[in-house]
Write a structure and sequence with these properties.
- With 496 residues, the chain is of the alpha+beta class.
- It folds into four domains: 108 residues, Beta Barrel (Thrombin, subunit H), CATH 2.40.10; 106 residues, Trypsin-like serine proteases (Thrombin, subunit H), CATH 2.40.10; 93 residues, Roll (Pdz3 Domain), CATH 2.30.42; 79 residues, Roll (Pdz3 Domain), CATH 2.30.42.10.
- It has ten helices and 31 strands.
- It has a seven-stranded antiparallel beta sheet with strand order 7-6-3-4-5-9-8. Strands 25, 26, 27, 28, 29, 30 and 31 form a seven-stranded antiparallel beta sheet that branches. Strands 11-12-13-16-15-14 form a six-stranded antiparallel barrel.
- The protein is elongated, with a radius of gyration of 29 Å.
- Belongs to the peptidase S1C family.
- This is Probable periplasmic serine endoprotease DegP-like.
- Keywords: Hydrolase, Periplasm, Protease, Repeat, Serine protease, Signal, Stress response.
- It comes from Alysiella filiformis DSM 16848.
Length: 496
């Protein structure tokens, strides 16, 4: 027997043995109590997963996603949305490809009815997005930015029926819009619980990227509770699901076929998908939808404080065991916070017993509460735990914007002194100190020329004597209350 025949025989025997082993395992599958991280087996609706036998080494069972079944059963809840300005209809001249381009006819043959999709970021008179049906009588969730600035909205269902949509309301702060079409007996999405999501869990998106309807993309949850610039009221779900222009407003599904998010934003330098996308948790979206449906607007509670993140050094300076909570750097005059007795330097570590892990958590918890509601804040004040009850006010349309402004106070003469161990040159300004120069430890803490120092280690400072006394009582990690422009912020001096 030659070498080729020997090799063939070995391959055939190996394949036969493998098939026999697979058949044996199917007839007598090993028993396991393993469940997915989100306990899919206990969820009330369908399980779009395929079970895989545990490995012999670790005896760990796994589940693979069955997206085909998910799309088959839940795809009808997804709609396409086209927003148009009737006075500015789009002309053929705005097509992505000119009519004489050799690829124009090619793409028209493949997708003859595909809409003309504008370049990302360009205003060509219309806009495309996605949405999800949340009730049998035609209420639909989408993004506010999909329909904003347009005077006519058309909804196309999965079965190609088209409807003119009425805009019930929009909320720019969460980027949620609620639409209504005149229809009945529609299949609507099942609503999931985003708090049960875990990083690494499979999710899928259905939408119309670049106008290609019923497109399915899948991936995993990358992280939860992501805060984005100028987005104070949405704890975004970050995924690696491919989301592109046109996906906006479409649903993000878990493996139980439940909607856990509304796809909203992508991180991109080119306008295309780069591996990072963000979805609005469905509980946030549904809360907004309920308010829009009942009142046409969204009301949020207001506390009336300026807060900042608690860094590791600040946590040490305030005597905390870990850097969590929201540090109050300013209490607005006449606000609910002032009336309840909250103070600058208080660290809010919980709201009604729910932990505030970072400063980003606080606006979400306060904003989700209605004006007039009384809440209990769990705070840390001067090394002690305490609870403070606050009756929330109504949030105005404006927002507090922290501006990083340079102070203009510069004082020279007899009031100037140097603090060599901190790297500060300071000048007395009456009831405060003004930084004339900052080097070394002070510069590392973030202090700079023109900053006004109001407090050191919780003590007011106005001259060299009070500053030296406060430093002596502050220990190694010392909190400093600094005014910069019209805002105040805490910084931590770490002495050698």
């Amino acid at each position: 027997m030659n070498k080729f025949a020997q090799t063939s025989l070995l391959i055939a025997l190996s394949a036969a043995f493998a098939l026999s082993a697979c058949d044996k395992n199917e007839k007598n599958p090993p028993k396991t109590d393993h469940k997915t991280p989100t306990q899919i087996a206990s969820q009330p609706e369908g399980e779009f997963v395929k079970k895989v036998a545990p490995s012999q080494a670790g005896n760990v069972g796994m589940l693979l996603p069955d997206f085909a079944q998910l799309v088959s059963q839940e795809g009808s809840t997804v709609v396409n949305i086209q927003a148009v300005n009737e006075k500015n209809p789009r002309s053929n001249a705005d097509n992505d490809l000119p009519n004489d381009d050799p690829f124009f006819e090619f793409f028209k043959r493949i997708v003859p009815n595909a809409p003309d999709v504008p370049e990302y970021g360009e205003d060509n008179g219309d806009n495309f997005g996605s949405g999800v049906i949340i009730s049998a009588d035609g209420y639909i969730l989408t993004n506010a930015h999909v329909i904003k600035g347009f005077n006519k909205t058309k909804v196309t269902l999965n079965d190609k029926r088209e409807y003119a949509a009425k805009i019930i309301g929009t909320d720019d702060k969460t980027d949620i819009a609620l639409l209504k079409i005149d229809a009945s007996d529609l299949q609507f999405a099942k609503i999931g619980n985003p708090s049960e999501l875990k990083s690494g869990e499979w999710v899928a998106a259905i939408g119309a990227p670049f106008g290609f309807d019923n497109s399915v993309t899948a991936g995993i949850v990358s992280a939860k509770n992501r805060s984005l610039p100028n987005e104070s009221y949405t704890p975004f779900i970050q995924t690696d699901v491919a989301i592109n222009p046109g996906n906006s407003g479409g649903p993000l599904f878990n493996l139980a076929g439940q909607v856990v998010g509304i796809n909203s934003q992508i991180y991109s330098r080119s306008g295309g998908f780069m591996g990072i996308s963000f979805a609005i948790p469905i509980d946030v979206a549904m809360n907004v939808a309920d308010q829009l449906k009942s009142t046409g607007k969204v009301q949020r509670g207001q506390l009336g404080v300026i807060i900042q993140e608690v860094s590791f050094d600040l946590a040490k300076s305030f005597g905390l065991d870990k850097p969590t909570g929201a540090l109050i750097s300013k209490v607005n005059s006449g606000s609910p916070a002032e009336k309840s007795g909250l103070q600058v330097g208080d660290i809010i570590r919980g709201v009604n017993g729910e932990e505030v892990r970072s400063s980003n958590d606080l606006p979400l918890k306060i904003g989700s509460s209605a004006p007039g509601k009384t809440i209990t804040l769990n705070i840390w004040r001067k090394g002690q735990k305490m609870d403070v009850e606050v009756t929330l006010g109504a949030q105005s349309d404006g927002s507090n914007i922290v501006k990083d402004e340079q102070n203009t106070q510069t004082i020279t003469g007899e009031g100037v002194f140097e603090s060599p161990n901190t790297g500060l040159v300071l000048a007395s300004g009456g009831d405060y100190l003004v930084v004339q120069n900052a080097t070394g430890i002070a510069a590392s803490a973030g202090l700079r020329r023109g900053d006004i120092i109001r407090e050191v280690a919780g003590m007011p400072v106005r001259d060299q004597t009070s500053f030296t006394e406060a430093l002596g009582k502050g220990g190694k990690h010392i909190p400093i209350l600094v005014q910069r422009g019209s805002n105040t912020i805490f910084m931590a001096l770490v002495l050698p």
